[in-house]
Structures are given as C-alpha cells and as structure tokens.
Design a protein that fits this description.
single chain; 4-stranded antiparallel β-sheet; 7 helices; 6-stranded mixed β-sheet; alpha+beta; 2 domains
C-alpha cells in the first residue's frame, strides 16, 4: 500500500505539469489575440491597472465606473478597440487596448545635453500620450488549456470580437491581395493607413518628412533585438515596406525576405 502511495505521489507533479500551457499554446494565444479588433459593448474606462473580468464574464461595475470618472473612457459603446499587447501570467491573460494608458513622456524628455549655452533634449519632443486601457481575464486557478476562442467568449459581455458587420463589409470591398495581407497580419504596398492598422495594429513610432514637396510618413514596428518593420506612406498609401533584424547594440542584418 505504501509503495503504491509513493508511486501516486510521484506522478502528481507530472500530471500537474501537463495541465500548464505549453510554449506553443502560449504563442498561439498571443498571435491569435494580438492586433485583434473588437467593438465595445459597454463603456471601457481608461486604466493603467488591468481591469478584471472573471472567467464567467463578470466584472466589477462600481470599480469600472470609478476608473471612468478618474481617467475618462477609452472606448464608448459601439467604438472599436485594438489589442496592442498580450501577456499571459499564472492566473490571467492581460490585454492592452489601444496602447494602454501612458503619459507619452519619459525621463528622457526632461534631460538636456549640449555644449556651452546651447542645449537640446535627448528625448522626443513629439511624444504623444495614449488613451487606451488594460483588461485582464482572471481565472480562479492557474491558466491551463486555453484557446483564443475561449478568451473572446469570456470577454463577450464587454467586447464583441465576432459581430463586426461594418468591418466585414469593409473587408469584402477591398482588393483580394490586401484582404489576404490583413488576414495574414502583414503589410504590403498599396495599403492605406486604416488597412495597415487592421493588419498589424498601431505603430511603435511615427516620423514625418517632406521631400521635394511630397509628404512622407514612416511607421515603425518592433524592438531590438528582433525584427523591425518600417512602413513608408506617401500621403495615405504605403509606398515601401522594409524589414530587417536588429541585434543587441543596434547592429542590423540584411533585409528579411518578403513574404509572398
């Protein structure tokens, strides 16, 4: 009897380990939720701290109302929100909406360097605040087997990922290559800004310049080390997409092959 009890106890950690999300499941969740767009079914307040939605789709309405009075709404009923970041923790899945709630300024914006009487800030003077929010799907126990559809179903009372009639009609009326690129979450030449946002979400950074009387705008995605994507617009149309890999220290590799 003691021998079998020892065997049973030895098997328990392995059984528990199997219930944890695998690395592949985590990646599938992140990829499946990242840049997804949903329509707000209730007023979603701005909030730095993730607003909790329990695994049954319930939320603390009093807490949400208090957050709304303090920071204002991130999305009113019927407005669209985009998932700009996904984090999976032990007992929750946290979603950043519309780049979260950030001031737009960092310590770099307050630091200046220079020679003699001439100084200049080292940060970006055009940094803008984001007025999004953060939501957390909170489970009673650790996150185990979980799919994208499960997260969307839990959030259904708050955000509608499925019934987007306007978006569906819009998708049906755009050229097939652009529609496929949006579905594949990549950018191609000929897209407009709305289509780029639908494909890959909001950029990390924007820069504008005028060359020979033409207005250009560059959108940057990604961080080093890793893949960086630069999308160049002339007016409202993408005229160039450049992808490269940036290593530690800012070193860059050759352009990545373009996906067909």
């Amino acid at each position: 009897m003691r021998r079998w009890a020892w065997v049973l106890l030895a098997c328990l950690p392995a059984a528990a380990e199997k219930q944890k999300l695998t690395e592949e499941e985590r990646l599938m969740l992140i990829r499946g939720l990242m840049a997804e767009t949903a329509k707000a079914k209730v007023m979603i307040p701005r909030s730095k701290k993730p607003l909790a939605v329990d695994e049954k789709g319930g939320w603390d309405k009093t807490l949400w109302e208090a957050a709304s009075k303090e920071f204002g709404p991130a999305a009113r009923v019927g407005e669209l929100v985009t998932v700009t970041k996904v984090e999976i923790k032990d007992d929750r899945v946290e979603l950043e909406l519309n780049n979260g709630l950030k001031s737009g300024r960092t310590w770099r914006d307050r630091v200046q360097v220079g020679v003699g009487n001439s100084t200049a800030p080292i940060g970006r003077s055009d940094a803008q605040a984001s007025a999004g929010s953060n939501i957390a799907v909170v489970f009673a126990a650790k996150v185990t087997t979980l799919e994208v559809a499960d997260v969307k179903r839990i959030l259904a009372p708050v955000m509608d990922f499925d019934k987007r009639t306007v978006t569906e009609n819009y998708m049906e009326n755009i050229p097939a290559p652009i529609r496929k690129a949006i579905q594949d979450k990549r950018v191609i030449e000929g897209m407009d800004k709305d289509q780029v946002m639908a494909a890959v979400g909001r950029p990390l950074r924007k820069e504008r310049q005028t060359v020979d009387g033409s207005d250009f705008e560059d959108w940057m995605y990604g961080r080093a080390p890793g893949k960086l994507t630069f999308v160049t617009f002339e007016g409202n149309k993408v005229v160039k997409v450049k992808e490269l890999y940036a290593g530690l220290g800012g070193s860059t590799a050759a352009d990545l092959p373009v996906q067909e």
